[in-house]
Backbone:
């Protein structure tokens, strides 16, 4: 297992007392479509961890791979003046992880987190486990709980 994924799994065990079933794929899971293909699930079951800024503060949005976050709509939903994608440096600064491998929890710092309400329609979703080649399965309600994520509609 990649050292960064192993570190994520260890942090999850230490913080939450849970075992993360990390799956590693040589093909990579950088995009939702890539992840769905190698995992063998619907793209809607991919829980993509995206970092945005809301009024210049980093926020995490765990969204379904089938949805594209509408930034103006999200701003309205969370009461922000403006929401924009964070640049790669801001993503790493806020979470400790690089783009393409950001897990939904176990970040280096506290970050306000939202979850795409459509993810909660599934029995199981797959989220990044710290690298662009690693994912783990999780019940979406459990994911929301672990990430202390507020459900929101991410599209209009």
Residues:
């Amino acid at each position: 297992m990649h050292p960064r994924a192993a570190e994520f799994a260890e942090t999850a065990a230490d913080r939450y007392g849970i075992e993360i079933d990390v799956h590693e794929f040589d093909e990579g899971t950088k995009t939702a479509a890539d992840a769905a293909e190698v995992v063998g699930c619907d793209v809607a079951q991919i829980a993509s961890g995206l970092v945005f800024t809301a009024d210049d503060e980093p926020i995490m949005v765990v969204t379904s791979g089938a949805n594209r976050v509408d930034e103006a709509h999200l701003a309205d939903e969370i009461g922000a003046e403006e929401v924009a994608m964070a640049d790669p440096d801001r993503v790493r600064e806020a979470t400790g992880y690089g783009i393409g491998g950001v897990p939904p929890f176990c970040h280096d710092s506290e970050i306000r987190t939202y979850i795409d309400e459509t993810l909660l329609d599934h029995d199981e979703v797959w989220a990044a486990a710290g690298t662009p080649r690693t994912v783990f399965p999780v019940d979406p309600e459990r994911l929301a709980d672990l990430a202390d994520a507020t459900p929101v509609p991410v599209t209009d």
Residues 12 and 18 are 6 Å apart (CA to CA).
